[in-house]
Amino acid sequence: MVICEAESEELLVKVKAVVASHIEMFSRRETIELTWVR
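User: That's the sequence. What structure does it adopt?
Assistant: Structure tokens below.
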């Protein structure tokens, strides 16, 4: 399967955005849990 460079770059940007938002959600949830524990 051959993907042109522009398409793979676009995909990489989308994947990075998804991963970043997941990390953000996870860390936010962790901070909320920590505050609740205290």
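The chain has one helix and no strands.
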